[in-house]
Amino acid sequence: MKNNTSVYLAALLAAAGLSACNPSQEQSADTDSVSVLTVSPADFDADIDGDSVKLYTLTNGTAVAAITNYGARVVSLHVPDKNGNLVDVVLGYRDLATYRQPGEGFYGAVVGRYGNRIAKGQFELNGQRYQLELNDGPNSLHGGTNGFFAKVWEVKHVTDSSLELQYVSPDGDAGYPGKLETTVVYTLTSDNGLDIAYHATTDKATVVNLTNHAYFNLSGEGDSTILDHLLTIRADGYTPVDETLIPTGEITPVEDTPFDFRQPTAIGARIDTADDQLMLGKGYDHNFVLKKDPGLQLVATVESPKTGIVMDVLTEEPGLQFYSGNFMDNVQHAKGGKTYGYRSAFCLETQHFPDAPNRPDFPTTVLEKGSEYKTRTVYQFRAQ
Predict the structure, then answer these.
(1) Which pTM was predicted?
(2) pLDDT at residue 286 is higher than 90
(3) Whether 10 and 44 share a structural domain
(4) Structural domain contains residue 278
(5) Residues taking part in catalysis
(6) What is the mean pLDDT of residues 56-61?
(7) Is residue 37 domain-shared with residue 159, that is, in the same domain?
C-alpha cells in the first residue's frame, strides 16, 4: 500500500507542479502553492482590503492538505485509503468567492473568538455586561457575523509541511473585550496527522474558545452520506440543549440514549429516533463531555466502511461538538463541480462547552491579561 500511495502522490504533485522531495525546504510566505485535483490556486489568489489571500499546499510525502489564509481554512485534505489511493476527506468550495458568500457554513474555518453558541450573545465579565453580534436566531454563533472565519490571517511562516497563521482581533471586535493576538499552526505530521496548535494572548480579560470547523466524509468529499460511518466518542455525558440549541446547564449520561457512542456505532443507527434532543437539533448537534486526563488524549474515532479510512481525534479540550450535517441541503459550488447533500458530512469540533461564559459550572473560557491560551488538536488518519 505504501508504494501505491507514494506513486499516486508523486503523480499528483508532479501534475500540480509541487515537489515533495525536500520536506524541510522552506517556502516563501507569498508562494503560489498548489492544491491537487479539485481546486486551483488561481481561484484563491486575491487582495481583500489590502491583505493578500492565497492557497497553500502542505505535504508530508504521503498526505496533502490545501489551506487558505482566508479564515485559516482547510480547503482539502487528501489521505490514503485501504488501497493506497488518495481520498479528499474534507468538504469545501471551489473558489474564494464562494467562501465569502453569506451563510457559507464555516467550511474548514477556524472559528472564534468563541466557537459554538453564546445565549442571546451576552455575558458578564468582571462586573461588565457585553453584547455580541447575533447571527443564529437570538444567539451568537462562532464569533458573530464577521468572526475569525471571515478574516484574512497573516502568514507568519510556511514550510512544505506546516503553516503558521496569525490574526490580531482589536478590542471591541464583534463586541468582545480586549485586543486578542491569535496564532494557529497547521502541521502535517509524519504519521498522517493534521496537527492544529492554537495560541492566544490578550491585553484585557476576555473569553476565548477556538476550534476548527472542518466537514468530514471519510468516503470522500461528495459522497452522498456519512450515516454508514462508525463513530466512537469517549464520553459518558453530553450537554442537552433548549429549542435554540443553547445548553440547559445539565450534563446528561449517554447511557441508554441515542447519544451513547462509547462503542463503535453507525452514525445513522439512531439518528431518526423520536428523541426530544435529536428532534431539537434535527439530528446530532450536541456537545459531548469528554473523559479527560491532562494533555493530548484520544477522544473519538470514525471509520468509513467504503474506503477503510479511520480518523482518530486527539485533543486537550474538555468538549467535543458532534454535528451530523442536519442543515446541509443542496450545497452548490463545491470542489470538482460537486453538490453536497443532506447529512453528507460530519463535524467533530474540539472545544470548551457552548455558553460557558454564562455557565459557571462549565469549564471556564476566561482568558486573563498576562495569561496564555494554548490548546492542541490532532486529526490522525490511517487505513484498514
Answers:
(1) 0.92
(2) yes
(3) yes
(4) yes
(5) 213, 349
(6) 96
(7) yes
